[in-house]
Design brief:
Blueprint lengths: L3 H61 L10 H7 L2 E18 L4 E14 H5 L4 E12 L2 H6 L14 E12 L4 E8 L39 E9 L7 E10 L22 E11 L10 E10 L3 E2 L5 E2 L2 E14 L8 H6 L16 E11 L7 E12 L9 E11 L1 H9 L7 E14 L2 E11 L8 E13 L1
Antiparallel strand pairs: 1-2, 1-18, 2-3, 3-4, 4-5, 5-6, 6-7, 7-8, 8-9, 9-12, 10-11, 12-13, 13-14, 14-15, 15-16, 16-17, 17-18
Amino acid sequence: MPSPTCLARGLCACLLGLTVSPVLHAVDNYNSSTEKINENLTHFSSEAEKNRQPEEDMIDELQERQYLLGDTGGWREDLADYGLAIDLSFAMNLAGNPVGGDSRGFTQLNSTGLNFGVDLEKLAGLEGLSFFSSLSVRSGTSLTLSHIHNVINVQQLYGNESYRLVNLYLEQVLLDGHFSIKAGRIAQFDDFSHSDAFAYYMNNAFDGQPVGFFFMGPFTAYPVTTWGALIRGGVPTGQHDGFYGMVGAYGADSNQANVDNHGTDFTFNFDQGANIMGELGYKLNWSKYSSGLPGKYALGAWMFTGPFTTNSGGTTDNIGGLYYFIEQNLYREGVPEQVPNSERMQARQVWGQSEGFMEEIQGLYFWTTGQFNLSDDVNQADLFASAGLYYRGLLPGRDQDILSLGAAWLNFSSSWGNAQRAAGQPVQDYEVELELSYRYQVTNYFYLQPNIQGVINPGAANQFDDALVIGLQLQVDF
C-alpha cells in the first residue's frame, strides 16, 4: 500500500499537470497565432507597397508633364506628325483692395484661350509656311471699374468679356529664318514692343504689353485684332545675336473692339485710317557660343493716318510717337561668366521650352520701356514709362519660380487736361502703379502668382485715396 507521502506527491503532480498543460497549450497557440499575424502583416505591407508604387509613379508623371492632360493617349504626337498643334489654357485674376480707392471690394476675372496652329510644310510640303488661329472666352468683373476707379486696370485679364475669334493669319518664313511675312487678323503687340517678362506681373501696366500705347492711339491687343501685315528681317528669332528690323501695317477700325461682333467683323472699314509701326532692335549674347550676359535693345515708332478729333475740338491727320524697350540680364547663377551659353544649358542652368536665353537662364534681370506721344493735342497721354526687376530661381530648389518688382508712370497731356477743365470735369494729371509678384511654378503646366500692388493717385485726378491691392494670378495649360 502506498505511503501517504507518495499519494501526496502523485496528487501534486496531477494538479501541476492539469494547471501547466493548458498554459503550455495556450503558449503554443499564441506563438502560432503571432507567426500567422506577422505573415499577414508582411503580406499586407508588401501589397501596400505594390499599390503605393504606381501612385507615386503617377504623381511623378503628372509633375513632369508639359500639359495637364499629357499626351492624351498619344494624339498630341500624332497631330504633331502632321504639323498640327492645339493648345488650351485657363487663367484667372483674383483681386481685392482692403485700402484706398472709391470703395473696398473683391472681384474675379477669367480667360480661356484656345490656339490652333498648322505647319503647312509638314502637312502639305509648303516650305516655311504656317497657319495660326485662336479663340478667347472671358468673363468676370474688374476691380478697377467697380471699386477703385483708377485708370490702369489692376487685373490684366480685363477686356472683351465675351467669346471672340482672335488671330487668323498665315506666316511665311524664308532664307533660313532671316526673313518672314505675316498677314491676316493680327494685333500690333503680338510682335512689337514684346517681352515674356511682362507676363510676370498681373497689373495691366506691365502684363500683356506696355499700356501707354492705348492712351496715345487706337491700337489693338489680345483679344482684339485687325487686318494687318508684318515684314521681319535680320537675325532669326531664337538663339542668335545681331540686328533685326520689322515693319507692320494695320487697319485702324474703331469698331473692332466692339464686344458684340465677337471678332467676326471682317470688313475693311478703316475709319481711322492705317497704322504703320516699325522697330529696330539688337539681341546681345543670345548665341549659344556667347559667354556674356544676354540682352535685348529696341527702338520703335508709330503713325496713324487718321482723321482724328483733337482735344481742342478740331481735326487732324497723321499722329504718331516713339518708344523704346530694354531688357538685360545682370547676374547669372552658378556658372562662371566666361562659360558659353551652350555649356550653361548642359549645366542645367535653364528650364522650360523657350528658344531664347532671356527666358531660360537663372539670375537677375532688368527691363524698362517707354512711349512718347509726339501728337499730344490728340488722345489722353503724352508719356508712359515703366521699369522692373525680376529674378528667376532665387530660392534653392525653386529654379522655375520668378520674383518680380515693377513700377509704371502714366502722364496725361496738358491739352487733355485743358479739355477736361473746359468741360467742367476733374483734371487728370498722372497715375502710378507698383507691383511685387512671385510666380510659384507648381508644375510645368500650372502656376500660382500672388502679388501686392499699389496704386498712387487712382483716377489721376486726386479724387481717391491711394489703393492697396492684394491679388492672385493663376494659369493652367491643358
